[in-house]
Amino acid sequence: MHNALVEAAAENEEGLMEKYFENGTLDEEDLAKGLAIGLAHHQFFPVFCVSAAKDMGSGRIMGFIHDICPSPADRPPAELEGGGTKPCDAAARPCVFIFKTVSEPKVGLVSYFKVYSGVLKSGDELTNADNSMVERFAQLYESEGKNRDAVDQLRAGDIGCTVKLKGSHTNQTLNPKGASVKIERIHFPTPRVRMAVVPPSKSEVEKMANALHSIHEEDPTLIVEQSLELKQTIIQGQGEMHLDMVRHKSEQLFGVHLEFIEPRIPYRETITKEANQDYRHKKQSGGAGQFAEVHMRIEPYYDGMPAPHGLTVKNLEAEDLKWGGKFSFCWAIVGGSIDARFTNAIKKGIMAKMEEGPLTGSYCRDIRVSIYDGKMHPVDSNDMAFQIAATMAYKEAFPAAGPQILEPIYDLEVMCDAEFMGSVMGDLQTRRAIIMGMDAQGHYQVIKARVPLKELHKYSSTLRALTQGKAKFTMKFADYSAVPGDIQAKLTSDYAAQSSNDEG
């Protein structure tokens, strides 16, 4: 192991490499020099075993920092967003990057930062490069363990902290007025596990939201989303232990007990064939009535598809939906059977039902709707009547158009030892996975697969058990794909039962 360390140090400079070839090793001074260069350029990362509680190994790590670790001035210049670099120069204008935010009782937010250039003094005002908010650094501190020591100034390369910044958070850069430098952000890992959070009671929903917001402020790898689509609070993290720590913090610091359950899946609905439907809305109950009749055709939409056959197209448009996929609307009314002023009302009625599909209540996508006939009344026809007629026509046409539920599919990459390949592959096949390929990366094997999100619930625990903890994975949304027929039938029946219970 010592020889491997010497070789790693020698690779960082030609002079050291020549000495290594001549002598077969390096003396202590040259070894320290090579290691310092390697650390400065992130060529390797030392690992120490220490115990703070028993004060074991702390002297060795402090000695290593003193003797070997490079100073900020010896590091390469910091990378900037959009290109360029920022050298560590105390003579330049101040530039501060916040790398961590901690919420402390009775103190509030404590912002930890590094001074990348210049000299920052107590009372200085800097502008946030992201939101243009001016922040005053009323107090500056150096951290030493759990203690904070007040200082008058911090110079380029120093790490310090301050309290009660108004609108600056982790991963943001602050500069003097007129400067817009942005230090390259920390790239946090993507989530690997998602759960839904059940609040303890309705009265504690706001308290739970504040707790989760504060914890997210400290830990950007935790993602909290209030999903209007799923009607759940979704929390995403790096693993089950990560979420257990979030639950522990919530209970200890905020007095809120969190219960995690399996989250709902954001399904989508579409159609597979053409269907025609008409609907007449007529209401007469004293005073002005309501009358509207709409004839529509719905069909699957795809980019580049021809205009609707057999119709005289007056206007044809397609738009991207905010939840993914597309919606195409065709106005094919001839002879003035429906006035064009009702176009927006009809479109609004269709969109209202596309936001709540008939099969599972999920969003609809990739559908073209053509309005080709209808009737109106000179007195009783209005926007509301045509909106209702369009909604009902769409709702009745959908079951006749070969409805199809789509589920989110994720690209999954699993990195593991070769000895566990069989177990991992076998488990993936039980999760309806499609194996896309395999590759080698160093000593590890990489399995690439496409897996439905529904089948990835608690996958991190299963993978850890299968591989004795010697594996890791990443997942990323890929696309939507049709669910198998038996699963579609179950999802539809479950939604119908739930809807009848809600109405009851």
What does this structure look like?
The chain has helices at residues 2-10, 14-23, 28-40, 58-67, 205-218, 240-254, 343-354, 383-397, 421-430, 459-467, 485-503, and strands at residues 78-79, 85-86, 95-104, 108-117, 119-121, 125-128, 134-136, 140-144, 147-151, 153-155, 159-163, 172-175, 193-198, 223-227, 232-237, 259-261, 268-271, 275-283, 290-300, 315-320, 326-331, 363-364, 367-375, 403-416, 434-441, 444-452, 471-482. 27% of the residues lie in helices and 33% in strands. The model has no long low-confidence stretch (mean pLDDT 91). It is α+β, with helices and mostly antiparallel strands. The chain has 5 domains: 2-70, no CATH class; 78-175, Translation factors (Elongation Factor Tu (Ef-tu), domain 3, Beta Barrel); 193-261, 2-Layer Sandwich (Alpha-Beta Plaits); 269-396, 2-Layer Sandwich (Ribosomal Protein S5, domain 2), CATH 3.30.230.10; 405-486, Alpha-Beta Plaits, CATH 3.30.70. A 6-stranded antiparallel β-sheet has the order 7-6-12-3-4-11, with helices on one face. Helix 5 packs across helix 6 and helix 7 packs across helix 8. It is elongated and about 95 Å long.
Q: What structural class results from the helix and strand content?
A: alpha+beta
Total number of domains: 5
Query: According to CATH, what is the class of the largest domain?
Result: Alpha Beta
Helix content: 25-40%
What is the global morphology? elongated
Number of contiguous helices? 11
**CATH level-two architecture of the largest domain:** 2-Layer Sandwich
